Amino acid sequence: MGVDRLGRLAAKAAGPAAAALLFLLAAAAAAQPRPETLAACAACHGPGGNSQIPQFPSLAGQPKVFVENQLVLIREGLRDVPAMKEVMAGMGDEAIVALARYYASQAPAPRAVPLQEEKYRLGEQTSKKMLCGTCHLPDYSGQNQVPRLAGQHEAYLLAVMKQFRDNPGPGRDTIMAASLHGLTDADLANLAHYLAAFRP
């Protein structure tokens, strides 16, 4: 039975309010990511976007705009992520929006990080010095086009920060490249540990 006919039946049975609700529910259902797409994403990014592999980022709780931007950059070849080329090939804007909405709505799973107190303290100092909480917010949850850092894999954070500092390429944030310029490997390692272990 088509959505239009269901809407007409609902309107007759319970009035315009019920019909409007039905159309909203139908639109929300249509905006859900396809199960096969989520399965492909979960292979690296984990169920519900909570990555189990240290080299791959968790997507759960990432800001919707940030996820949308990154997926478009990857689809258009402005960011080279070989593992995602097949998944993103031919993906339309609506599918990207649906994926971004899905991952933004997922709760980040708490991750046990063995705390190294001195490393954590030094990382916190570096974060305050570099004003990381200005763009990423004081709880490092991210906003708009700025990613969530809190609770992300330490190995992933370190690798990405080194890439920003040493080899910024197309599709990468030039502000981050400038912000990390001059930090040592030890600074980045401390910062990655702090952010991975951070809890609001």
Question: Can you lay out the helices and strands and say which pair or pack?
Answer:
Blueprint: H1 3-14, H2 16-30, H3 35-45, H4 64-75, H5 82-88, H6 93-105, H7 117-130, H8 132-136, H9 154-166, H10 174-180, H11 185-197
Helix pairs in contact: 1-2, 4-6, 7-11, 9-10, 9-11
What does this structure look like?
By secondary structure, the chain is mainly α. The protein folds into three domains: 1-29, no CATH class; 35-105, Cytochrome Bc1 Complex, Chain D, domain 2 (Orthogonal Bundle), CATH 1.10.760; 117-197, Orthogonal Bundle (Cytochrome Bc1 Complex, Chain D, domain 2). It is built from eleven helices and no strands. It has helices at 3-14, 16-30, 35-45, 64-75, 82-88, 93-105, 117-130, 132-136, 154-166, 174-180, 185-197. Helix 7 crosses helix 11, helix 9 (154-166) packs across helix 10 (174-180) and helix 9 runs antiparallel to helix 11. It is globular, with a radius of gyration of 20 Å. The termini are far apart. The model is unreliable at 18-30 (pLDDT under 50).
In a few lines, what is going on in this structure?
Helix 7 crosses helix 11 and helix 9 packs antiparallel against helix 11.
Feature tags:
Cytochrome Bc1 Complex, Chain D, domain 2, mainly alpha, 11 helices, 200 residues
Element-level helix/strand string: HHHHHHHHHHH
Instruction: Flag low-confidence runs.
Output: 18-30
- Derived structural class: mainly alpha
Which architecture of the largest domain does the CATH hierarchy give at level 2? Orthogonal Bundle
Number of helices: 11
Our measurement of the CA-to-CA distance between the termini, rounded to an integer number of angstroms, reads: 48 Å
- The count of β-strands is 0
CATH superfamily of the largest domain: Cytochrome c-like domain
In percent, how helical is the residue content?
55-70%
Number of domains: 3
- Measured by DSSP, the beta-strand proportion falls in under 5%
- What's the Cα radius of gyration? 20 Å
